[in-house]
């Protein structure tokens, strides 16, 4: 997990003014579960400031999450860090359609 988030932070911080976003996923518990990570900085941030912002965000998520409920979001003025068990790009194929009654 640490190597993945570090790789994403470096990729985002080194992105050009129009590309300061990255995402990836890891599988754990024998590939039974997936954890998706999305990170983004605003284009006006320097590489160093982007790294600082993303590091602070990922540290904040770790301070209030625990496995197996490991998910969270930190949104600041200049960056965004998201850990979740659902990908924002590939939502679940089937939703529960029970009627509320």
TrEMBL record:
Keywords, sorted A to Z: Repeat, Signal
The answer, when asked if Repeat is one of the entry's keywords, is yes
A family per Pfam: Stress-antifung
Asked if Metal-binding is a keyword of the record, the answer is: no
Q: In terms of domain of life, where is this protein from?
A: Eukaryota
Q: Where is the Gnk2-homologous domain?
A: 1-88
Q: What is this protein called?
A: Gnk2-like domain-containing protein
Organism, as annotated: Helianthus annuus
């Amino acid at each position: 997990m640490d190597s993945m988030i570090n790789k994403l932070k470096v990729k985002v911080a080194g992105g050009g003014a129009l590309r300061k976003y990255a995402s990836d996923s890891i599988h754990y518990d024998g590939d039974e579960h997936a954890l998706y990570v999305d990170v983004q900085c605003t284009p006006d941030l320097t590489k160093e400031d982007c790294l600082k912002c993303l590091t602070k965000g990922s540290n904040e998520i770790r301070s209030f999450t625990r496995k197996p409920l490991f998910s969270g979001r930190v949104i600041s003025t200049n960056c965004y860090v998201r850990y979740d068990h659902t990908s924002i790009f590939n939502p679940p194929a089937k939703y529960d359609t029970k009627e509320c009654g």
